[in-house]
Fold this protein.
Amino acid sequence: MEIIEEDDLQTLGKQMKAKKLGLLLMFHASYCEYCERLREDLLLPMLRSGEYDEKIFIRKIQIDSSDEVINFNGQTITTGQISTLYGASMTPTLAFLDHTGEEKSERILGYTTPDFFSAYVDKGINELHATIKASAE
């Protein structure tokens, strides 16, 4: 099981809306050892556990690649441009987004140890999920 490197946020946004799910999006870089640690320590176990399947999609975007991404509005932009849109110049950055691409919880910058970090991530996910549920009612 692996975290998907997202390249079409518009299509994902439609799936998110249909399933009433949010998006935990990790901005990472090829040179970022902390990104790899975050992926191994926290995000992959979250994905494998299945506990978050009813709340969020977990995806990543590599900001130092030359790839292009389809944004939530259907516009094709570079990974560098999308990282600028979300203030993700530092890696890793975690953003908590709704189906329109709007941030619904405070983004998390950087990663040190898993000790308290997972509590901050859970807080962001719970805030995001509560907002999505409230808007669906």
Remarks:
- The helical segments are 9-19, 33-49, 79-85, 114-136.
- The radius of gyration is 14 Å.
- The chain has a mean pLDDT of 94.
- The CA atoms of residues 35 and 123 lie 20 Å apart.
